[in-house]
Every structure is written in C-alpha cells, then in structure tokens.
Amino acid sequence: MIEDRLRSAGYTLVPFGAPAELGVIHTCVVTREAEAKSRKTIHRFIREHPDALVAVIGCYAQTAAEAIAALDGVDLVLGNDAKMRLPEFLPGLARGVPVVSCGRSGRDSFTVPFLSQGPPIHRRVNLKIQDGCDAMCSYCYIPFARGRSRSRVFEDVIAEASALLARGAKELVLTGVNIGDYRDEGRGLTALIDRLNTLGPQPRLRISSIELSNLPGTLLERMADPGHGLVPYLHVPLQSGSDAVLNAMRRPYTAEEYAAFMRRAARAVPGIGLSADVMAGFPGETQGDFQQTCDLIEQSPLFHLHVFQYSEREEVASARFPNKIAQETIRDRSKTLIRLAAEKKHVFYASAVGTIRPVLFESRRGDFWFGHTDNYLDVCVSSMESLENCLAWVLIEESRGEMLYGTVRSVQCLPKEKAPLE
Predict the structure, then answer these.
(1) Which residue, 29, 229, 300, 418, could crosslink 59 as a Cys pair with Cβ 3.0–4.6 Å?
(2) Across residues 154-158, what is the average pLDDT?
(3) Strand 356-365 relative to strand 368-373: parallel, antiparallel, unpaired?
(4) What are phi and psi of 369, to 5 degrees?
(5) Which secondary-structure segment (H or E) carries 164?
(6) Which fold has domain 125-351?
(7) Domain locations in the chain as residue ranges
(8) Looking at the domain covering 353-411, what would its CATH class be?
(9) 116 and 166 in contact (C-beta within 8 Å)?
(10) Helix 154-166, helix 189-197: angle, nearest 10
(11) pLDDT digits (tens, 9 = 90+) for 249-275
C-alpha cells in the first residue's frame, strides 16, 4: 500500500542496493533480534546512500522515536498510525532536521488511505482489518508498539477489497495483530468474511493468524462449504503445550483445549492446513514442560511451526520472572522443535501426493512456476506458458524436500469448484 502511494506521488521504486534518493526502512520489534536487524538496516542504508533522505517507519519507530531521530542521517520517523501517510510528509522534508510523528492510537475504528486504482496485481495480497491487542501476554511487546485493539471500518475494508480484485488480485489475506477481535458496528469477523465472499470475482480468502480464544467456530463451517471462498488453512499460535507455562504466559486456554480444537478442525475440514507459533525457553520452562509441548505437537494435526526463542524485553512482565533459561538450553530446545516441525511437514506433504489441489501461482524461475495450494503447501510445476496469477488445478505427483511437484490439469478454476477427475 505504501509502495502504491509512493508511485502515485511520482516515485520510482528501485532494489535495495541500487542508487536511491529516498530510503524507507519499515521496522519491527517483535524480538530483540528483529530490533537489531532494523538498526543494522538503517545504518547500512545511510552508509551506502549518504545523500538520500531516510524515513524510518513502523514498530521500532513507534517505540524508540527519539533514539532513531538522533541518528545522523535519519530525516523522518513515523510510528504505526502515521506510516501509511508517508508521502504526505515528504514534500519540503529537509536534511538535518528530523521530523517525528509517533502518536498513540486510541480504540476508535479506523480507515486506511488505500488507492482506488493502481497497477495490476499478480500475487496474493494482504488486507489489513485490525490492529493492536488487549491480551497483554506476559512476554509480548506488541501492545507497546501497536496499542490497544481496534478494528477497521467495515465498509472501508470492503472498498479496498473491491479495488484489489479489480486490479487482478485472486487471493486476499486478512491480517491484523489479533483479527479474531474484529468488530465494527456489531459486525464481527464472520460477517466480514461472508461479505467479502460476495464480491466479484469471488476471491480466495485466507486467515493470516488468529488466536484460539477468539476464533469463531463458524470459520470451520465456511472452510468446509464448497461454495465459500475461505480456504482450509489456519495459523493458531500455541506457544507452549504445558499448562504451567501457558498460565505464566497469561495465555487464555489450556493445552488440552488447544489440542481438542486441532482435532476438531481436522475432522470438520478434510485436508485443512494447520500451523502454529511455538516458543522455546520461556522463564521457568522445565524439561518436563518442554516435553509436553513436543508431545502435543507430535500428536496433533499441525504440519508447520514458526519456532521462536524466548526474547527478553525489560518492559514486559516476564522480564521480572525468576528461573531464566540458559541461552544454550533455549537454542537446543529450538533446534528440537525445528526438527519436529520438519518431520511433521514431511508427513503432511507426502499425504498430498496423488491429490488434486487448487494452486495460485505467483512466481517463476526459468520454466518452473511456484505457488501455494489452498491449504498452504508449496507447489512447483513446469510450464512453457505463463501461469502468473493463475488459479489452477494441479495433480500433486511428488514430494521432495519442502516442495510438492505436479502437473497442471486445468487453469483458472474457481476457489472451490469440484476438482477434475484424475
């Protein structure tokens, strides 16, 4: 969206290493490592482009505005509310006098300054519907960077979705910090998804990440409905399989409640792709706690994990917890989880061989085209013809590494029409 607005303001986007007159560094603080990478990227751009204007935006800009503005070479610092208005700050921006806009967000519903027209879209595209979080998990820094939970105005979401579809988007990925919290004028997430499903042409709809505590059971019904565009995929953060650790994290569910939902989802939606976040090394996590996490994952239908090592932030409650875990132990537990995730993925990918799945193709290397199935598996096919932004039925013939290989059976399928016969 920011790229669109910059182009409409007359800017031409160039690769990161190319000569540039403006650098925009969109920053993250979800872990200490992310924050360090943000600082490194800022310094690198300034070093390689000493005469360029430099704008630092996003979460690190929100939480460390004064420190960033003090860096020699930074000209503009925009927090999360102001970053979408980046082009408005650029005219007249002077070197050596940093401009800072990092106000805190309230709870009111918000709109987003999207463009009604723009260049063609050839890939799945994110559609932001919510921001902020009220959960205050004991380890989480996000509420400090994003503020309290708030939802985007219902009709504003629909208007942008319609514009994206008119530009060629075939799949919309609903994003936010805690999208299960979505509510605008009494309409929740299911109502929004059902309204998006009526837009023409009917898009594939995907949930980016959603918490178990506010996940509507109606989503499984939509995924199982062959006439609905909501794809059979859910990313539901787990964090730990130990009730003791979950309680210390202030997570509002038990390990069994999480495992029971995974089993229910797998029964309700055949072939559903299920993934999760999981954390290694939370303060006080015993070897027994960690083993409970591994056991839950191994016995569940989860096929993919985002593994995080516990990252200490002095601002959050867990920084004051006793029984910190040694870094070496955290790394070892992280490696164990990564190996377990690889095994789960291998089994799930192998189970897809011989099936026919709808795939949206987004990129190519030579004669090979790459895309994702509805349940979010990576697929590669060989084709001399262009498959860019094509939604096609693919016969999955082989699983190798972290990739499925297959043959296109028919092109431009509807999101959930019946697969052609083998």
Answers:
(1) 29
(2) 98
(3) antiparallel
(4) -110, 140
(5) helix 154-166
(6) pyruvate-formate lyase- activating enzyme (3.80.30)
(7) 2-101, 125-351, 353-411
(8) mainly beta
(9) no
(10) 30
(11) 999 999 999 999 999 999 999 999 999
